[in-house]
Amino acid sequence: MTERTLSGIGVTPLSGVGTVVWYRPDADLPEPPAPADVDAEAELARFEDARAAAEDELEAERERTAERVGEEEAAVFDAHVQFLNDPQITDGVSDAIEGGLPAEHAVQETFTEFVEQFENMGGRMGERADDLRDVRDRLVRVLSDGERVDLSSLPEGSVVVAERLTPSDTAQLDPERVAGFVTVTGGRTSHAAIFARSLALPAIVGVGEELQSVEDGTEVVVDGESGDLVVDPSDERKEAAAAAADVDIRHEAVETADGVDIEVAANIGTLADLGPAVDRGADGVGLFRTEFLFLDRESPPDEDEQYEAYVEALESFDGGRVVVRTLDIGGDKPVPYLDLPDEENPFLGERGIRRSLGPDADLFETQVRALLRAAASADGANLSVMLPLVSTVEELRAGRERFESVAADLDAEGVANELPEFGIMVETPAAAFMADQFAPHVDFFSIGTNDLAQYVMAAERGNERVSELGDYRQPAVLRAIDATVSAAEGEDCWVGMCGEMAGDPDLTELLVGLGLDELSMSAVTVPQVKAAVAETDTADARDLAERVLQADTKAEVAEILTLDQ
Q1: Is residue 77 very low, low, confident or very high in pLDDT (cuts 50, 70, 90)?
Q2: Does 493 participate in catalysis according to the annotation?
Q3: Annotated binding residue 450
Q4: Given 80, 105, 493, 498, which residue is catalytic?
Q5: Is 461 annotated as a binding residue?
Q6: Is 427 annotated as a binding residue?
Q7: Is 289 annotated as ligand-binding?
Q8: pLDDT tens digits for range 319-346
Q9: 498 an active-site residue?
Q10: How far apart are CA 77 and CA 330, in angstroms?
Q11: By C-alpha distance, which of 489, 3, 465 is closest to 220?
Q12: Domains contained in the chain, CATH given
């Protein structure tokens, strides 16, 4: 067979070689009986029993996913439980049953209506359609006494190919058996993509309908970096993919080819992420998303629980820095026990430091107490703390004053504490424009490129319709990064990056050239980025950065980067 290539969206910088196994879980229901033959009361009872059984399954699946993949990924199943019990949906199913449909057909009809509504919204809301499909299919399977396809025991070397993969599907995949997966639909922020990065699986999404032409049993190469699916690959192509997958893990710190130290750290959401970060050679933690300590519970963690979590993170790395981001609630991170406003556009609303200095001031004070105590622990000298979504000098000053005030209170109580290294996230245009005013008041900046690209380009990062605009290779985003780094020059202020851009090894040379001191990413990409750092010469990197900053378009940026490789 002649080698051919299909293109999609690569979501992990990993390659895999394997054999296609098509996953087609959808089964059509038989025609429903006549409405007069349907016992509505019995069908309503069946629906309630199925809901209870589905909720039990979801709770068990959530627990398994938290242990195996991570708490952040497992949280998706909480949303599934909410959909399962959503009054709009359950009332819709009940009405359909009362109208003469059996329970499984009523579920299919009602959920499909909501799936279509979410799909029409696009962006992050559009991606929730997969969650609804997942819940729908689970209920239909329970009602129909169907058997679930076991994706956890596929033959070794399988490449799973599907129209789409739901969170429940992806959570089953065993990286020891699966060489990768490819889907017709999906984007970089889909649940399947997020799970792929956490599981360190080569993956491509959004290939399109052309993927349907690839048959079961076909040998393929999955290039999760380029987004290329190579069908019937040559021996040379397979050997190259195997070599690319064989990346050495460096547990020691890394420097450029000419001796410049670059810190390569990991982003974590929960303590379960610490082990994989250490195993993949991370120098420390560049972003500890503390909001995940507050999710999926009935009340917030107290001071001691938070203190123990921060100390555990510090103890996991031998002298490595741990950068903790204070509570970033709001936007796409709702907390059920907080009175969060119903905002038309929550990403432009009350989130991050805006809540910590306002309605969540008590929570913020408790968190600061725990952090100051952790800074005084045996490993606390390596603790750094940063504030999210800072946009004004007033917010920065107020945040810093809160730390100093809490330190004074702890001193008065006789409680050991230290002020940690203090910084802010740069994720808004305001922060980039004002970086020269912020720099004298902080020890570091950490650039969050996911939000920075979204806000600079006015393009929601989860909206596939504007994904080209929201790309971090857009000249405006690169110039915002450059402005931030330039503002820190001459000040005692280092600059890191903890957005998705930091984990792209194809951009490592550019980021070194722009002057970044630290790069933090999903643990899966740490080895590739360390390897890229070691191969980088800083003079060449600076030349590359200068040429890229002169580019007028994203296409020009891409061309310069491609020619440089």
Answers
A1: confident
A2: no
A3: yes
A4: 498
A5: yes
A6: yes
A7: yes
A8: 899 999 999 986 555 576 777 777 777 7
A9: yes
A10: 19
A11: 3
A12: 4-25+149-245 (3.50.30.10), 40-144 (1.10.274.10), 258-564 (3.20.20.60)
